[in-house]
Amino acid sequence: xxxxxxxxxxxxxxxxxxxxxxxxxxxxxxxxxxxxxxxxxxxxxxxxxxxxxxxxxxxxxxxxxxxxxxxxxxxxxxxxxxxxxxxxxxxxxxxxxxxxxxxxxxxxxxxxxxxxxxxxxxxxxxxxxxxxxxxxxxxxxxxxxxxxxxxxxxxxxxxxxxxxxxxxxxxxxxxxxxx
Length: 179
Hints:
- By secondary structure, the protein is mostly helical.
- 56% of the residues lie in helices and 6% in strands.
- It has 5 helices and 4 strands; from the N terminus they run βββααβααα.
């Protein structure tokens, strides 16, 4: 346990940054087809929050009461994101979901969550909402999480099941999707 699972070769191997990978069968796209890069979705949602806050301020509490918990969540989310990214890079697989996945990573934060980078983004976003002292953050976060689940995570899971088959299903049965 804890060792990246590599896809058996489906054709001639080619060298990549993370080692050897097999090309996808002809006519098959070797990426999950997510609707947008997750950081861009979160940045757009943050833009919506800032506009709504400017048009109609909706404070959560007195400012100092939410500032420090917000900063704490931002730091915690950033730490998980850095840990997850380094773990993926160390396993030689792509972080960007529009590129092929070359390994199922089961170490680092991936021991506890199949999607620690997305959990980190949500914590970071919620922390910013607290630091900005606006209820618009949690309100916008709810539809954002639905979009992330349907447009990113569900697509990635279908892709990983097709690509890695039983190895991914075993991992999926052992590790929670989020927390």
